Amino acid sequence: MNAASATSATSATRKVVVVGSANVDAVIELQRFPVPGETVLGRTLQWLPGGKGANQAVAACRLGVPTVAVMAVGDDEFGRQVLATLDAEGADTHYVRPVAGPPTGLAVVSVDDGGENTIVVVPGANASLAPSDVDGIASLLQEGDVLLLQLEVPVETSRTAAAIARACGARVLLNAAPLGGVSAPLDDLLALTDVLILNETEARLLAGVPDHQDDADWSALAAQLSRRGPQAVVLTLGEDGAVVHGPDGGWHQSAFATDVVDTTGAGDAFCGAVAAALAQAETLPVAVRRGCAAGAFAVTKAGAQRALPSAQDVEGLMGGVS
Ligand code: RIB
């Protein structure tokens, strides 16, 4: 494939359907994170559109792939802003439901001087996204399309969507984030997953590996997780790239070196880019390579959605090679 067509929409392009969360992010910049029991002063506060589902939908849109958002927001000003942002990015928002009662999901995102973040999410309306909200995707999904899921909406809703996607011949991508606080069993969802994407922390949690074990064998862990159902497991390792265990064995994708300003949304950039590439009928190795480039681009700017790359940005980082 030549560089010019590497990440643009082609005649083979299908769609990405994201069933997931939409939040408003209260982003606080601070010098360093407080330790438990400590109060520190922040430097700045900004209100930005976020949510892993919405971020990943925007990531796919920016890469030129038709994208449908299936989400729930509060019937409030934040909900209207989040919806307007998705519309402005070109996502199909017919399946975004404003719910009466709970407020739009809120994430408190703290970013320190090293660009690292901590995030606390209050699900709000995201918790109202019900299995009945995803019934309609049966008429949307076809063979070659991609369903993209995360864990910020009820697991039963994601499982229902995954079952529908499988029946339609679409591919199911699950970003197992966040895992902390998810108490529902994931086995049925993992069994319906084609590609599982998760970071080191999530992989340890899902596999039950103690986090004080520094010498984790990521390839073995990816292989272990694939035995729970997914055909491929993609383990993102930040500046060490990604380790993949697929049907034909495992491999490592190197990272693209960039200067880190803010890591918020890097995982979403990765997932959106992988989903977009698979919807463009690319292979998993090409998709993971683009995902690494998209993630590397996203850390160079502050904010989750603001930092998401265009197809040209991704091509630029990859040096024109798909
Ligand atoms: O992945 C980053 C996102 O996680 C933020 O936008 C926040 O809303 C949380 O969902």
Please tell me about this protein's structure:
This protein is α/β, with parallel strands linked by helices and 322 residues long. It has a single domain, classed as UDP-N-acetylmuramoyl-L-alanine:D-glutamate ligase (3-Layer(aba) Sandwich). It is 30% helix and 25% strand. The protein contains nine helices and 13 strands. The strands form two sheets. A nine-stranded mixed sheet has the order 5-4-1-8-9-10-11-12-13, with helices on both faces. The chain has a four-stranded mixed sheet with strand order 3-2-6-7. A hairpin with a 5-residue loop joins strand 11 and strand 12. Helix 1 crosses helix 7 and helix 8 packs across helix 9. The protein is globular, with a radius of gyration of 18 Å. The N terminus is likely disordered. The site of alpha-D-ribofuranose has 17 residues, from strand 2, helix 1, strand 6, strand 7 and helix 7. Alpha-D-ribofuranose binds next to strand 2, helix 1, strand 6, strand 7 and helix 7.
Our count of helices gives 9
Instruction: Report the CATH superfamily.
Output: Ribokinase
Number of strands: 13
- SSE arrangement, N to C: EEEHEHEEEEHEHEHHEEEHHH
Q: Could you please say which CATH topology applies here?
A: UDP-N-acetylmuramoyl-L-alanine:D-glutamate ligase
**Poorly predicted regions:** 1-7
SS-based class: alpha/beta
Inertia-based shape: globular
Distinct small-molecule ligands in the complex: alpha-D-ribofuranose
CATH domain class name: Alpha Beta
Strands side by side in the biggest sheet = 5-4-1-8-9-10-11-12-13
Head-to-tail CA distance between termini:
7 Å
Query: Can you tell me the number of structural domains?
Result: 1
Q: Indicate the proportion of strand residues.
A: 15-25%
Integer-rounded radius of gyration? 18 Å
Query: Into which percent range does the helicity of residues fall?
Result: 25-40%
The major β-sheet equals: 9 strands, mixed
How confident overall, as mean pLDDT?
94
Architecture per CATH nomenclature, i.e. the level-2 architecture? 3-Layer(aba) Sandwich
